[in-house]
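User: I'm writing a tutorial on reading structure tokens. Could you give me a worked example: one chain, its sequence, then its tokens, then a sentence or two explaining what the tokens reveal?
Assistant: Sure. Here is the example chain.
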Amino acid sequence: MLRQHSTRSSTPASTGKPGHPWPSLPTEIRIMILEAIAQQKHPGWASFASVCKEWQIVLARRNFHRLTLRVPCLDGLEHLIVQQQHLVQHIRFEIELPPYSCYRCSMHDGPTMVNYNNAIVSKGILNLFRILSSWDSRGQPRPECGLSLELNVHCPSDSKYWFKNCQFALDDGEGDGKKDDAIWHDPPHGWVKGQQVAAPPALAVLRLFEDIRLQCVEGLPEVKSVTSLKIGRQLRRRFYLSDLEALLGKLSALEHLLLEPWREWENGESTMQDTAYQHLVKDYLPQTLRRISVFEDSDHSLAVLLANSYNAPTWRRQISAARNADPGVGAAFALRSLSLEYLSVSYMVNAEDFLRACQTTWIWHRLEFLALTSHLLRKDVMVWDHHDKINDFLYEAAKVALRMPNLKALALWNGGRGVATAFIYHTDRNYAYITWRGTWDVTLSPRVVDLWEQVAVQRNQSLPLLVRREQISETIASHGDAIHHLHLPCPVVSPSSLRQIRVEGRHRLTKKKTT
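And here are its predicted structure tokens:
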């Protein structure tokens, strides 16, 4: 058992037990031991930093490296001593909304509660930005990787009643994401022995996807230390895009943006949202960005539920379960990709629209990784000349890739329940590869193979091209399973979100019964 000692001593005192004195151990061994202590994170492990200066250096670095904060924690963050601020590399900021009772679990929040929730979120984000901006003004050195910020908003009651299989709080990044479904026995809320047997009421669904209106955008200060921003799929509630534009505009050093929004349910709202995304991508994303990843999630079963529900407002009965990508959004991302090193856009755009918008004079000097979803790679849209259309599409993709001299990997893919398909180009030290991987097969035409060979030659004249076809035989219960088994060379969704999608897919509704 390790004991705490006065910080005045330069090395830990002997415990009197046989063994090697701490100072006699090589420095590398001592650091390995301290790293192991920090990795195990036993209760009270952070207090070991008081043993001596050497321990403080190693353990404090691990202790402050990744902070998970809630609104009440901001006072402590504000008073963090200057010498510790440069140790913080990742902040996960969780805003919790007030819980609700079972009596209200099947209801939509009224205007008063919505405004109250908006005030909580606004105050939390404003206070966080003020604190981080004060760090910038002190001129302390920042880590080379910059500061990563992850934002989330949720209500603890969301997973208590109807949505037990869903993840709303921030994932700690450890484990396989499995939840203890043995305790999910709550017949009044549609759960019997770990399985969902009744659909939630429409108003309970709509509560999860309420809009968030920030009341603080004009007062947000500039923050120079944040280089990475993530808003993950566990945040079902939606920021107004105009508010998101304002928030991004205050992150003047942002290099990496990861957004995982949920698709709008109603067709008219989706059209307006797509128009807003066009403006966001073309006009409001910081010019400092080098990497963009956007994963638009959806839940087909909930979409169908809302479309068929008489409990939802009348206009929401126009809901579509299928995603029709707006060509303008694809064109906006195509233009923006010219200045990027990494771009992944899933479901929000159609790869055909992206390629169609690329002008013949464009050259992507920086782009190394590109991943896009393609409508053509959905098996449910197959027609008699589908294979010919796919080969034409892959040929056009190669023509564009020829103007990407630094391209290391490209993935054109799609996936959903029962289907997973991808065309993948990537290189290693010895070969370039094109791979067709999926639950169904396509024969690549000779002209497609020849043109992709030119892509490989352009990057490195010594790289031969290998063509591979790989069949996926595993069960695909969700688009998360599809992504998992496609082994895409470009990550298209965060690991924690992928775990969440797969867990939710394993506990789908087993009976077509509505409440």
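What the tokens reveal: The longest strand covers residues 419-427. Confidence is low (pLDDT under 50) at residues 1-14, 48-52, 511-515.
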